[in-house]
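Summary for the steering committee. One of the milestones for this cycle was to obtain a three-dimensional model of the protein with zinc ion bound, which we needed before selecting residues for the alanine scan. The sequence and ligand used are listed below.
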Amino acid sequence: MKLIFLGPPGAGKGTIASRISKDLNIPHISTGDLFRKAIKNQTELGKKVQQIIESGDLVPDALTVALVKERLNNPDVENGYILDGFPRTIKQADSLESFSKIDNVINFVISDEQVIQRLSGRRMCKNCGEGYHIENMKPQKEGICDKCGEELIIRPDDTPEAIKNRLAVYYESTAPLIDYYKEKGLLLDIDGAQEVGKVAEATSKAISK
Ligand code: ADP
Ligand code: ADP
Ligand code: ZN
């Protein structure tokens, strides 16, 4: 099963992808996570993209496509994968089509108000990347990751200014992918505003049809 998770920042793509990837035993491939890892390790790529990501702009298509193409060469994608946060532009989607055939695109629908509520309370484990929310998905112990016991941090692109920019970038560059995939008959809309268990359930149901 080859899936794309589409939706505005904060829609819950990462949270749901991490669950579904375990259920289906296919890798969860998040371009955001790959970029953050590169930044953490201060690789050439990481140094190139750090400022762009912190401002909430998109990394250039060529760099992003090359990263995904390389990742999809890994033998672990044999039975499929979930692409979380890729493609984010029509250009990226056209490129993807030239090297992989997607089964379904899950479009998580939430309002701008919810985007802001979710991103402004989002926390991330600095070690394992596990996601939390200060109100919606609290860790057992405040500020500490349930999974690995490390510290939770605020992503540098979850500042009010970067959030505003990311929403604008989403509408300008990424939202056109909704019609793009609808026309190809691949789009499945999911109400992302529901409680997380319900969103996961609706997603599983939609892809098993
Ligand atoms: P995305 O990957 O689409 O940017 P995340 O999965 O990181 O979104 O979720 C954004 C924030 O919202 C996180 O803090 C997460 O804990 C929280 N969240 C995710 N899904 C839900 C949900 N269904 N209800 C409430 N909060 C959620
Ligand atoms: P979010 O959880 O808010 O949806 P991600 O973790 O998916 O954010 O991505 C974080 C940042 O990484 C994006 O704001 C963007 O700068 C960069 N990025 C991730 N995926 C892509 C992509 N497909 N194309 C361009 N830039 C990307
Ligand atoms: Zn952790």
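Key point for the committee: The longest helix spans residues 160-174.
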